[in-house]
Specification:
Elements lengths: L7 E5 L5 H14 L11 H9 L6 E7 L2 E13 L4 E11 L8 H15 L5 E3 L8 H6 L15 H9 L7
Parallel strand pairs: 4-5
Antiparallel strand pairs: 1-2, 2-3, 3-4
Helix pairs in contact: 1-2
């Protein structure tokens, strides 16, 4: 495990990090071979959903020499089988220039520390099947759940399904 350099730190994101968070999200999109145009999030979205009420996500920033070079964005989920909360790690990313500095592991360790302090039963995340970062996750005892397949309803499907829903009773 690489030691975290004295010029590296993990901290909570602040509202003035909104532009940095978007830059890092776009860096993640490029890493995942997605066009930058795929990223629709705005600074207003970051401010509303990460720093407003209700807070939809939390975010940690990795700094190197005082500059944001990575982030972990996560939110609460719940396990009905365990009867307790967990965390879902939506994104973990470190700029290419800072990879190997220990900041990715430091971000994961910070998320784990928060999960432990909150008595969470698990941390869930998704990783692309081709992503070489899978080796990093295996090294920290994060395991691939072979029997689970990811599914998603996108906005048009949500709208179509919702249009036929009965009224929710009081």
């Amino acid at each position: 495990m690489p030691n975290l350099a004295a010029n590296a730190a993990v901290r909570w994101a602040r509202p003035d990090d909104a532009a940095h968070i978007i830059r890092l999200i776009k860096g993640l999109a490029a890493y995942e071979n997605e066009p930058e145009a795929s990223v629709k999030i705005t600074e207003a979205d970051i401010l509303r959903d990460g720093f407003g009420e209700p807070k939809r996500f939390e975010c940690l920033i990795a700094d190197l020499d005082g500059a944001p070079v990575g982030f972990a964005l996560f939110f609460s989920n719940y396990s009905t089988w365990e009867g307790r909360a967990g965390l879902y790690l939506e994104d973990l990313f470190v700029d290419e220039s800072a990879r190997g500095s220990g900041l990715g592991r430091a971000l994961m360790a910070a998320v784990a520390q928060l999960a432990a302090a909150r008595n969470c039963g698990r941390i869930d995340l998704g990783v692309l099947d081709w992503n070489p970062t899978r080796d990093f996750y295996h090294a920290i005892d994060c395991h691939h759940m072979h029997e689970w397949l990811p599914y998603r309803l996108d906005s048009p499907a949500i709208a179509a399904l919702a249009a036929g829903a009965p009224v929710i009773a009081g």
